[in-house]
Amino acid sequence: MSGTPAGRPVPRPDGWAFGRGILPYPKDRALLWNLVSEIIDGREGGVMVYAHHNADLDAVATALVLKRAFPWVKLGAFKSISTPGRKLLTAMKEEMAVDPDLTIFKLVVIVDSSSALQVSDGNLSSWPRHWVLDHHAEHERWGTEHYNDPNMGACVEIALQIAMMTNLPLDREMAVAGIAGIIADTGKFRFARASDMSACSFLLNGSDVRMEDVLDVIEGEEYFDVSKKIAQLKAMRRVQFQKVGDQIVATSRVTSFEAAAARALLVAGADVVFIAADRPDELRISSRAKPHILRLGVHLGNFMDEIGKLTGNEGGGHDGAAGLNGKGNADKILSLCMKKMSQLIEDKMGDTKPKHVEEIGTAGENER
Ligand SMILES: [Mn+2]
Question: Of 119, 177, 186, 303, whose CB has the highest number of CB atoms within 10 Å?
């Protein structure tokens, strides 16, 4: 790091720098200092850093970086913590309480939350004094002190600004948490802005952390789970697919890890997938679609609801991730999904694309 003491960034006109990476200075340093002062003043009475319901990686990362800067704060979350969030906490050997008693604290710092409903039943009147630290563009007018910077792709970038303002040296844990939060909130960099990439470069240059270290933490042992690897490979071997215009609809069967198998097939090239987990006592079908399919107007939750009704099962879910539970012949239901989805995509593509549904075949057979 060419003359810079390890962990200390170089101040530049536009921000703190490590190598070519820059973390910009906060948009309102005075306002952010107000929060810092209150956290310091609140030390005696207790400070709770509070994350939203099902605290995601960015919320957990924000809380972890704040705890690095102010070790006396306690961490908490409303209702639950997401699985990746829990993995990050375990890796950092920190704890986050679920639904702690907030009334015993002097100050609550709500992080990564754009509305009161994300952290409570909506009524904060019985809460102690609270601050909000957020980065959402759609940001509720909190009836309290708040700092919101939608130019930050992840809330943890603001927490890192706070850490740098307090002259905290960058360490490995902060770098891992920072990159994890940015990865999560940019859809694994798909929607990352130059500033988010620059912040990651700042964190990588300023620490000995490698991207692989961060991904290992987020994905954890599951990444190396042998049953999951086999399920994904079996799903590959049993795949059937159909070309609709330039889109690929694929189906396959596994006995478990159907969601992981669905993701693997999307990565392998499918645009919409249906994976059956076929067990003696029950049948589950997991379905996933890429964002451009959703932009055509396809809603998998509604689609699986319809498949459920047609087959006497229960189906439903989100636009890009849905499922079905019940009983029946896996192959028959999968081919129904394939047929109906191909028709639906063809309809949605409408007049702009040539109507063209082409059977291609199954893995192991001739690909052409
Ligand atoms: Mn966030």
Answer: 177
**Would you list the domain boundaries of the chain?**
10-220, 225-362
Ligand 1 mean position, distance from CA 89 (Å): 16
Question: If you count them, how many residues does the chain have?
Answer: 368
Q: Ligand 1 centre from 189 Cα, in Å?
A: 13
State whether residue 328 is helix, strand or coil. coil
- 347 CA to centre of ligand 1 in angstroms: 36
pLDDT of residue 361: 54
150 alpha carbon to ligand 1 midpoint, in Å?
10
Q: Angle at Cα 224 formed by Cα 222 and Cα 228, nearest 5°?
A: 65
- Is the domain 225-362 a CATH 3.10.310.40 member? yes
Please state which of the four CATH numbers 1.10.645.10, 3.90.1640.10, 3.40.50.1980, 3.40.50.720 is assigned to the domain occupying 10-220.
3.90.1640.10
Q: Average pLDDT of 72-88?
A: 94
pLDDT for 110-135, tens place per residue? 999 988 988 998 889 999 999 999 99
Cα 82 to middle of ligand 1, angstroms: 13
Nearest CA to 173 among 52, 69, 20, 22?
69
Quote the tokens at residue 242. Answer: 């159909």
Distance 154 CA to ligand 1 centre (A): 5
Residue 72, SS3 per DSSP: coil
Burial 113-137 (b: 16+ CB within 10 A, else e): bbbbebbbeeebeebbebbbbbbbe
Of 134-143, 144-153, 302-311, least confident by mean pLDDT is 134-143
Closest by alpha carbon to 162, among 145, 151, 141, 147? 147
- Which of these, 280, 259, 289, lies nearest to 330 by C-alpha position? 280
